[in-house]
Amino acid sequence: MTSSLNHDPYISLSKITKGYKISGDDVPIFSNLDLEIPGGDFVAIMGPSGSGKSTLLNMLAGIDRPDTGSLRIGTSRLDQMSEAARASWRAHFMGIIFQFYNLLPMLNVAENVELPLLLKPLSAKERRSRVEKVLDLVGLTGRARQYPKLMSGGQQQRVGIARAIVSDPALLLCDEPTGDLDRKSADEVLEMLRFLNRELGKTIIMVTHDPQAALYAKRTLHLDKGNFVEERRAAL
Amino acid sequence: MTFLDLARKNAWRKPLRTALLVICIAVAFLIYGLTASFVNGSQGASGASDDILGVMSAAGRTQPLPISYMNRIEGDPDVAALNYMIRLRGFVVAEKNVVSVSAVDPQRVMEVSGKELGLTPQLLDALNLQRDKVLVGRALADAQGLQVGQNITVTGFDLARQDGSRNWSFGIAGIFDGENASTDTYFMLGRYDYLNAARARNRDTVDAFVVRPKVSASAGELAVRIDQMFANSAAPTRTQSEKQFLEAFLRQYADVGLIVDLVVSAAFITLLMIVINTMVFAVRERTFEIGVLKALGFSGMQVMLLVLGETLFVFAVGGSIGLVLAKLLVAISDPALGLVFSMPVLAKALAIIAFLGLATGALPAFNALRTPVIVAFRGR
Fold first, then answer.
1. For residues A214 and A232, what is the distance between their CA atoms, to the nearest angstrom?
2. Shortest CA distance to B184 belongs to which of B26, B40, B19?
3. Using the beta-carbon criterion (under 8 Å), do B296 and A115 form an inter-chain contact?
4. Which Pfam families match (chain A) (predicted)?
5. Is B186 exposed, middle or buried (0-12, 13-18, 19+ CB in 10 A)?
6. Domain map of chain A by residue range?
7. Cα distances (Å, whole numbers) of residue B270 to A46, B212, B312
């Protein structure tokens, strides 16, 4: 499948405000944040610590809510959905890749990848078939029965990617996916993300501190003090 | 993999902790299985009927009643069948071999209790063969190695013969098994005419009448009517169901049921606290992973069910081990102990397993349900 950048905004944030109470004081993170991301885009979000990158990613994942403003992904208004509805939305429309992989240690590779499929009405055979397919895609064929603790960081992150894409979500959110990896492993993971974006048409939002990682994205947004201050587009 | 597999794998992620919990639960259910089998079996109360009535002297169970009461009791239209008996308590050979002989009318015992005791026409014929024949209950026969054809002498504690001796000779004519495992068969059935003719005192009296009411009749109302019949006589009666009688009889020594309930409750309350405490810590340790599951799309309810599944799994494994051990110990125990591990005991134990599994999992499961993903992620 070739990349097709759909220019209708797939993700739309409008007049988002968000703040936290820290030691009784209101600490604003965003005020009137606007953002539009078309379907099929690959966006890197950079910025210093405390700039709001993780908060933004959490809101896009539906695990945190804006205080005001609208947050739409596809046809879903995440800001208006209940906790249970957002969980269901995550199960069907979004995959998430963590910095520290967050694989469950008592499950082997295949079982970790299968986890999101437990939430779908699939037979055991269908689940197995999908798991085999994505493990093949991330180059882990033959390691299905291995346990995460016996794998390198790069391999564990591939398992994390396989888990994120096994339910075929349109949106992938990556929280510092190469932050715990050496350069070589990081490049392999980033190549894989680029492949998923270009060949499978996944919309990818990646939070990163690593400028080299950001080069893999189609565009990079710099966030500072709750506002986007710079945008760089990669040469296609 | 299924949700249950996931719960199971979660439960076994710290094998030592889980093994200790399982042992703890197994021991509690072993205690429960044995004590419940004791209450169920040794009292014979579970096998005793609520409908069959025993009519005894109101002055005490050792006081005799005139056999002439039989005609008046039988005159009540709600009486389907009636039997009368003398009890001979004594020992065989050595004083530790305590036995009890209920001396009855063979035909009447068949009509009143034949089904419950598992009496067959062949056994009845064998008992009718000679006046000194007895039928031995299976539990007693197994406990004391008594066999058909054997002649035994029962030395009575109280009942003396006309010659002053307290030795009563019997020939074992058969063994009755009882209707089911919970039927009390730790006694013998002898003949009333034999004991009545030979005893020194209280001839033509009985220790008790046993009444089977008609199916349509109320046993409680019939009991009241029978006692009213003799309220103003020289020997007033006290009529109770067989079950009430057995329970009251045991309560003379101790309220076994209450003691057992207290022991079992103490075991289960301790268990409840240990498991709740352990599970709360186990789930708290995994707060971050709960956040991961929720981030992957698991709802709060699904995570809650996973935690409940985990505690249910631990209880199911521990409880099953405890109950299997209890069943095995009951099977190899001395029949004289009268332990009976019946279906009602098993069903009640399974219900307790399910209840405790859910009760102990409720608090940690509720915590898991309520933990927001953001808070869970801070837990790393």
1. 10
2. B40
3. yes
4. ABC_tran
5. buried
6. 40-63+83-233
7. 54, 45, 17
- Residues recorded for chain A: 236
Asked if pLDDT for residue B204 goes beyond 60, the answer is yes
Q: How many CA atoms lie within 13 A of A174 on its CB side?
A: 38
CB B67 within 8 A of CB B100: no
pLDDT of residue A144: 92
For residue A18, the cross-strand partners are: A30
**Would the pLDDT of B207 be above 80?**
yes
pLDDT tens track for A195-231: 999 999 999 999 999 899 999 999 999 988 778 877 7
**Strands laid side by side in the A42-46 sheet:** A94-97, A171-175, A203-207, A42-46, A219-224, A227-233
Name the residue facing B297 among A83, A87, A104 (closest C-beta).
Answer: A87
CB B107 within 8 A of CB B114: no
Helix (H, G, I), strand (E, B), or coil: what is residue B258?
A: helix
Ramachandran category for residue B338: left, alpha or beta (phi over 0 → left; psi -120 to 50 → alpha):
left
* Residue pLDDT, tens place only, A74-91: 989 999 999 899 999 999
Tokens of A170: 């349109």
**Is A96 in Cβ contact with B295 (below 8 Å)?**
yes
Residue with the two structure tokens 């968000």: A18
Q: Does B296 touch chain A (CB under 8 A)?
A: yes
Please indicate whether, in this complex, the C-beta atoms of B6 and A118 are within 8 angstroms of each other.
yes
* CATH class (in words) of the domain with range A40-63+83-233: alpha beta
Q: Which residues contact B55 (CB under 8 A, 6 or more apart)?
A: B65, B69, B73, B208, B209, B210, B211, B226, B237, B238, B239
Say if CB B223 and CB B86 are below 8 A apart: no
Q: What is the pLDDT of residue A4?
A: 40
B92 pairs with which residues across the strands? B154
Query: Percent of chain B, pLDDT > 90?
Result: 55
CA dihedral A201, A203, A208, A213 (to 10 degrees): 20
Predicted confidence (pLDDT) per residue in A153-189, tens digit: 989 999 999 999 999 999 999 999 988 888 888 998 8
How does DSSP assign B279-292, residue by residue?
HHHHHHHTHHHHHH
What pLDDT score does B250 carry?
63
Residues of A in contact with B295 (CB under 8 A): 61, 63, 90, 96
Sheet holding A68-73, edge to edge: A25-38, A9-22, A68-73, A76-77
Which of B1, B13, B301 is nearest residue A118 as measured by Cβ atoms? B1
In this model, does residue B38 exceed pLDDT 90? Answer: no
Q: How does DSSP classify residue A81?
A: S
* Nearest Cβ partner for A90 among B297, B300, B372: B297
Q: Please state, in angstroms and rounded to a whole number, the distance separating the CA atoms of residues B90 and B170.
A: 13
